[in-house]
Amino acid sequence: MRLDAEIALAARLAEAARAEIRPLFRTALDHEAKADASPVTIADRNAEAAMRKLIEAEYSADGIHGEEYGLKEGKSGRVWVLDPIDGTTAFLAGRPIFATLIALLVDGFPVLGMIDQPITGERWLGVTGQPTTFNGGAVTTRTCRELSEAAIATTGPHYFSQAEGDVFMALAAKTNHKRMVMGGDCYNYGCLASGQLDIVCEAGLKLHDFAALVPVVEGAGGLMCDWAGEPLHAGSGGQVLALGDPARLEDVLEAMTGHDHH
After folding, report:
1. What phi and psi, each to the nearest 5 degrees, are found at residue 48?
2. CA 119 to CA 18: how far, in whole Å?
3. 127-152 per-position pLDDT tens digit
4. 207-244: burial string, b at 16+ Cβ within 10 Å, e else
5. What's the pLDDT score for residue 261?
6. What residue range is the signal peptide (predicted)?
């Protein structure tokens, strides 16, 4: 799939988001609670508005699904999925591990994904059928011979229900839990694609949280799926797994299956 024009647009979207986000980082920002109680900032809103404007100018027939402004129906079977600041909590705490997430879905499946960190200037790009790049250079996930050697990450325990938390801890117990990482949102998936982490396990994710991550992880040789091992698409629930080494999938699912996570 040749997506040269779309890749170029994604880069312009990321630059537009950076221009809105950078001046507001580590400033005194008012934030309000959204319906799901996560903080919204002016930076979030302005970044998404800037990205939507560019997409509408270039691909008016495409749909747009954004975290802040909802869904604009399209006519092309293609949808751009935007999360202007994934990790608003990190942004508000002055921690540069949030990112702008940009994805393109064709018939419900992610074919292009970008993770862009506006402050550090780090950018992962994944495109179906192409190797994932980090700031222009190819990256690959690392081999993980045993689950007991795996470094696992998740954004935080409070994002799991009680039952989901039990499943995560059952999995984490089988990994090298001294190396377990808490916090990080989408940044963890970039680190996994670059070979620094082995597993990310999360729940409660929405389409705008995971769509961009799939091409990035898979183009680097990793695997993304739900907790049943099924591929992720527009209709997926929020229980998400990323593995740097797909050979460990069976071990991971086995570690999780002793627990009911519904």
Report:
1. -65, -40
2. 8
3. 999 999 999 999 999 999 999 999 99
4. bbbbbbbbbbbbbbbbbbbbbeeeebeeebebbbbbbb
5. 52
6. none
